[in-house]
Design goal:
Number of strands: 10
Number of helices: 10
Radius of gyration: 30 Å
Strand order of the largest sheet: 2-1-3-10-4
Shape: elongated
Length: 288
Amino acid sequence: MARNRRSRGVARLRGVRRWRSRLLLLVLVAAWLVSAGGCQRSEPPPAGREDRLVVFAAASLRDVFTAMGEDFERAHAGVEVTFNFAGTQELRTQLEQGAAVDVFASADQRHMNELVKSGRAAGPVVFARNEPVIVVARESAGTIRGLADLPAAARIVVGTPEVPIGRYTLEILDRASRSMGADFRARVEARVVSRELNVRQVLAKVRLGEAQAGVVYRTDARAAQDGVSIVAIPPDINVIAEYPIAVVAGAAHPGLARAWVDLVLSEAGQGALQRAGFLGRPGGGPGP
């Protein structure tokens, strides 16, 4: 009897040991799988592979570039396009402070030229042009029918002098002062209640009724559809905005950056821009 009890005890002990050994083995296998999976996720993409594109672009390019980005992603499987739309001067500041950017598209030559001088961009190409217009709140459409009527507005909103649309607005007012009275600019500025950091903010203030009139690009006015009335500025007084684009120096994804610039300059890209209301490139036609 004692021998049988000892035998059963030994058997139970061996069973416990086998169970512990199997449990330990399972734990070790599970730990290895988790470690292996983690290592796979942290491995960088294969050399030469680019799967993300970062584009900084003027706020007035938001709608057309967003649509072009969807086409670009379909044409480049596995690639994600990330946009940052803001006032050109704000984008330039972010880039100068070290923001990770592949492509920069400006609403004027001035800010792009400064980046070229500092070595942060090279070989910019003008890919589109735009035309400033006056947008008028619907309830004021009968009062402001032309540039000469602008001083009659009770509340006007414009861009800050640092943003391209703001600088173009001041240039237009200076030109108008030559034929509409030396004090024309002063009379308009006396009605300015807000100066905004990008053109979309100017448009929003007019659409929301916070201002009776403002100066924006024709493409932005078109995007507002029936939300505002559009008043043209006489050609001899107006200015034409030129939009340059360039690959940023030290871009993390140079191949995709060049592909994006090629798309914008292509026949398809130029067609999309013109359908959005942009004027064609100087000389017309797609880029080289």
